[in-house]
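Sat 14:20. Reprocessing the chain from the morning session after the first attempt stalled halfway. Input below, unchanged.
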Amino acid sequence: METTVVRCAEGHVFSTASLPMQNVGAARRIGSGGLVRCPRCARLRNVVPVGKGEAR
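Finished this time. Tokens:
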């Protein structure tokens, strides 16, 4: 299974196994991320993929 490095709305960077709605067609996708439970703040947050070299 492939992991994706993401950033939550609070700025926490972590990896996740997959993003929700990743396989849904572009016409039905809302934004480039999805909702994932952040392990740092333990809340359901909107996350976006982090570009290479962008993670701190």
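Confidence is low (pLDDT under 50) at residues 24-30.
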